[in-house]
Amino acid sequence: MSRARADEEEYWHSSKFRAFTFDDEDDELSQLKESKRAVNSLRDIVDDDDDDLEKVSWSGEPVGRRNRLPSLPSLSDAFSDTGVKNYAPELRRPRAEYKDYSNDWSPRDTVRRMQRGKVCSLERFRSLQDKMVLLDEAVAGHDGNVITAVLIFLKRTLRREVLFRELEVRQVALCHLIHFLKETGEQKLLLDLLRFLDRTEEVALSQYREHLNIQDVEKKREFLKGCIGLPFSAEDISHIQDHYTLLERQIIIETNDRHLAMAGQSEIFRKYPRKASILNMPLVTTLFYSCFYHYTEAEGTFSSPTNLKKTFKIPDKQYVLTALAARAKLRAWEDVDALLTTKNWLGYTKKKAPIGFHRVVEILQRNNAPVQVLQEYVRLVEDVETRLNLATKYKCHDVVIDTYRDLKDRIQLMAYKCKVERGSAEEEKINSLLSNMQIRWKN
Amino acid sequence: MASTARRDAPEPPDFGILKRLARDQLIYLLEQLPGRKDLFIEPDLMSPLDRIANVSVLKHEVDKLYRVENRPAPSTSDQLCFLVRPRVRTMRYIADIVNADKMSGRSRKYKIIFSPQKFYACEMVLEEEGVFGDVTCDEWSFYLLPLDEDIISMELPEFFRDYFLEGDHRWINSVARALQLLNSLYGPFSRVYGIGRCAKMSYELWRDLEEESENDGQGRKPEIGNIFLMDRDMDYVTALCSQVVYEGLVDDTFRIKCGSVDFGPEVTSSDKSIKVLLNAQDKIFSQIRNEHFSSVFGFLSQKSRNLQAQYDRRQGMDIKQMKNFVSQELKGLKQEHRLLSLHIGACESIMKKKTKQDFQEMIKVEHALLEGFDIRESTSFIEEHIDRQVSPIESLRLMCLLSITENGLIPKDYRSLKTQYLQSYGPEHLLTFHNLKRIGLLTEQAAGETLTAVESRVSKLVTDRAAGKITDAFNSLAKKSNFRAISKKLSLIPRVDGEYNLKMPPDMAYVFSGAYTPLSCKIVEQVLERRGWQGLEEVVRLLNGNEFAMADGAPEDGAGGDAQRVVVAVFLGGCTFSEIAALRFLGKERGCRFIFLTTAITSSARMMEAMAEAKA
């Protein structure tokens, strides 16, 4: 900490503060302001230029004289270089350091000087009491940079248990040390600290976090396996278990499918080549993948959707939603139908959608389902208004007509006649309904 | 503030000098390393740098420019200069370069310029890596970047995570110095208000700095009379709502970066992207930025018709008139035409994206959450959002909004939403949930009991002197949002008979379609009106205190001139464009001018992203 600052820095700092406190009457400032105004007024003119929307930017590739040929360093270059580099800093250092040692700053003044960016030696704070007074002053001074500086010093000069004990009752300082250890990547010390504080859940999470930095999937899987024993909360332990199982599955599926795809034997992989590997994808994405490529597989295989559903206790709603999206994407309308059909104990079949039929329609429509398929599900939308909206939007004429008939809404039905094609079956249907004397129209 | 006769708001002070000061200091610092040199720039600093100096200005000083990134630098220069944020990661990058040179026996000069300030932890890393004496360090005190005539940003998005999540006070000094600078150039401020722990600490450190500096600013005529400091955690709700004023929507849709936006091909209806500066100088933008989105179309089409009419005047002109037209008007018209077509393109693109996202339904859910009805329906909407793998950030945002408005999720919902989230977006988000819990954005109800147990256990160990501090720390942990009670106290949900008039809005609630008045802005309004916190005791208690109000010989009504009607609103942890629009509206109503000073422009997406765990 107690290293020297260059004289130039000192100069700049003193001059900086003067510059910021110019009075209005001060010549330089008013001049500066005036020129600024002048430039501003000019800018209006300049801005009207057609080119102003595309400015030169820093954000691109390295700009500058990119094409300049690299020149070989000459002998004289090498000489002057080493000369300046090695001696200049040494010459400046002693003077600055001397200044610091000559003053015994109080803890408060030490903190204040450090807040102003000045170099201060902390070595003379040797008793535990002195150190803690210094730390408390730093915290009271509100400058996190200084708090961390003091902590770095304490970390170096105190046994860790002693430091931890003192920090336990100094929450603000404690936060700073934890953040500092996270940033510098001193994982071992961080874990020791968290253990000392009895923050077991954080210990677990902090270790689990390391998996993000492991590239190799096999190594990652092994690492996650080790995470299962960590002191997570009861709730989180199942998430960790699932994470491990998921990656394990993905590795199996990936190995298999890559092989299948390469061999070129499987039709589905030929027709719809895989865009990316399934490794490290979320569970729902994996389920989608499995519904897309492995839909018909028996529950016994790891890659089958039903196996995934069972292993990860995927709720019905989530399962149907995902399977529907995958099968619709393949335009496998029969699968869609089967997915939404349930049988009761008497053997009657019934359509059921845990996600609501309006969602079913939306998914099918997004996958360009034909009207015949679409209207079957539009008809099942419970809310009449939504049903009418969807049916009209997707031109499911039959559904619209039947709904108006059920509503006994003659006027709307008549109005709809102009939306269907002349001479079509739909028009005929409307006509026959309108002339049906049995219906008691409400209007 | 004037409540009777409506006065025009004073013009904002000229903040151009801030850019000038920053540029001059940077050039001075670069000159301290004489001769040819290559400059390495931190990516985060590129856009801010863009706004104060162009490439040619630095070309006098610098040979080649590189960005600081995770790969070895190909520079062949004998002098390397690094312009960086004070980060441990960056120090290691620089140390690696220096050490590689040492290994290969190469000798160069290195200089690091920290912006806005140097941290001791950075020097420690340099020392540990054995390069301390090999590099020289400087500070570029670039605290304040004027983004517009009334917006100044510190461009420190990491402030939010560092302070509110990690509890690190490292940027408080920077804030205090920024305030000192602003005060010395445009003050002295006669009234200071604030709320929040960070606001209070920043204020105290700033006072310290002022006491020390010799210049007391007496006798100078101030341009700014009032300042209001607020912590972001006083009001998370506003930041979490979908934005519907134009500038907010543009930010949510395209990400405004440092006052400029990249409009892609879908907006420009060509095959290239265009970078556009969005500020008061843009004649079209400045008229629609604060408007509710629904009013923007009408305005744009009116403008288009006017423009067409002006072009049409060409017909029937004689040669001389035509010549005049071309030399005097055409350029302006062309410029206007260009801006108009860009904003129309942006609107179209926003509409397209929002329709796809069920925006209407989402807004309905948000309003229900704000008002506190249909909680079950809203919860299922969020659940479905997650199940369908719609944007992970949006799902997270909605969950946080639910949590904050309801003082936490009931445990059953918390568990089930969390499980589904991890299944839809990846198990590693376990870490994100932990962060959100720590910061208080997404919590489980009835956590109060366990906390009290920990508290009592720890407080046994606490000495008297530290007792205050530790209780404080726990208070912030245990802090409940109390949104419902605050909302009632301040009447944040306007009662409207009939349709809310978005074209001629009656109050600040228009920034959220008349459904909700932003809490942060309401606090500012109330405190300025009352000249302090009197009568707001209950609100302050619900917000967890830390309020303050100081008046240093503030002149009475009328005596202070225009400066008394200029207010700097400081947002510690970020401020959204919706809040800016709301306070601009308030300023117009009350005849005062708000200047926004923020650690960074924020939005719900930026806040959520700051909570995610990234790879190291």
From TrEMBL, chain A:
Coiled coil: none annotated. It comes from the Eukaryota. Keywords: Cytoplasmic vesicle, Endosome. It is found in: Cytoplasmic vesicle; Early endosome; Late endosome. The keyword Transferase does not apply. The keyword Nucleus does not apply. Its main location: cytoplasm. GO terms for cellular component: early endosome; late endosome. This is Spermatogenesis-defective protein 39 homolog. It comes from Gallus gallus (Chicken). The gene is VIPAS39.
TrEMBL record, chain B:
One of its GO terms (cellular component) is lysosomal membrane. It comes from the Eukaryota. It is a peripheral membrane protein. It is found in: Late endosome membrane; Lysosome membrane. One of its GO terms (biological process) is protein transport. The keyword Transcription regulation does not apply. Keywords: Protein transport, Transport. The keyword Protein transport applies. InterPro entries: Sec-1-like_dom1, Sec-1-like_dom3a, Sec1-like, Sec1-like_dom2, Sec1-like_sf, VPS33_dom3b. Belongs to the STXBP/unc-18/SEC1 family. PANTHER family: VESICLE PROTEIN SORTING-ASSOCIATED (PTHR11679). This is Vacuolar protein sorting-associated protein 33B.
